[in-house]
Write a structure and sequence with these properties.
Shape: elongated
Organism: Paramormyrops kingsleyae
Number of helices: 1
Membrane topology: Single-pass membrane protein
Transmembrane segments: 250-273
Helix content: 10-25%
Number of domains: 3
Strand order of the largest sheet: 5-6-9-8
Pfam families: C2-set_2 (PF08205)
CATH topology of the largest domain: Immunoglobulin-like
Main location: other
Length: 295
Amino acid sequence: MAALNNFGEDSHAAFVMSLNKQSSILLNKVYQPVFGLYQCLFCAVFHVLVQYLSCTVRPVVTVTPAAPLVVGGESGVLATCIAANGHPAAGVSWRTDQLDGPTEIQNNATQNPNGTTTVRSYLLVTPTRSMNGREVQCVVNHTALEHEEIVPYRISVHYAPQPGNITLNGTSSEGPVFQCDVDANPAPTRYTWSRVDSEVLGPSLRPEGGRLVFLKRDPGLNGLYACEASNQFGRVTGTLFVYTDDTRGYYGGLIATIFVLLFALSLLSFYTWKLRRSRPQQDDVGMQALGQQES
């Protein structure tokens, strides 16, 4: 039996012979370019066996977000999936099942000086408000991986505040508190409260960002209020009619008043219908009575 060791003194690979006559290759400092094709020759009488060993390098996978896209703007790169320093080159794809609109994937591979390959996969989309907060996944396949490697990415797109509601958000020790709820990304950086029939809010009202606190119960505070919410991409204004008196407390919103009026109108219509239905019966009874008298 004969063995050949041609690795050299400065090589990162070493030949190891065990006592049971089994031969092995020891690879040191695997971060160096030691991958490749290794040949093992086993020599016996009238027979030579050649065995080849292929060495691979597992890629390092990361997902890098691009600058946030703005709804209403042009399509662009949403995120980049990088499978770096792999040998051979990794296969990179995206799962976009949660997205409604069209997507585009662009891949390119870069050969590194040490013989490894870095693959970059760009996911391009046209930004919509509905995709904000949804998830896409980068999927990497490689011979050094037992299973595909999946890296999730949560989408963030920017857009101006959308029309929302002003709702009752509890009460303070003095009066009610109203909340200006709007959908925006990033969140509104400025809230401006105003009263439509007055230039100033007055000392009985305290704005706290997206909240408006009534400091006392006063019918003089009845009126139409407006909340303007804004970020760097735009602004939106919502309104609320507030009504109160000393006996019934506060009623936030004109909808409650309209509901009461509709309910009263329904009762009046029902009473009128009942009245009209009963009149023909009364007329029939009167006619029968008159006929009996004439006979």
